[in-house]
Description:
By secondary structure, the chain is mostly helical. The chain is built from four helices and no strands. The relative contact order is 0.20.
Amino acid sequence: xxxxxxxxxxxxxxxxxxxxxxxxxxxxxxxxxxxxxxxxxxxxxxxxxxxxxxxxxxxxxxxxxxxxxxxxxxxxxxxxxxxxxxxxxxxxxxxxxx
Length: 98
């Protein structure tokens, strides 16, 4: 078990060494943000189920097809969620390659 997110994040990045897996995460997170905006602006309250479908769906495709490992969210759900958004931000800033 990890004592902190700081301790967990290097493990999280190692679980995402495949570029195509990272791209699937990026696509999923972008779809989550776009869908969230669409839900709020359009007041489409019945469509909230799309958020985890896009986010986890894309990420899990990346893990099972490209990374060939089990998503960290199964073992560390909260740290994994934080890691996904941290990795997304670092990809946007060019600190992690697509």
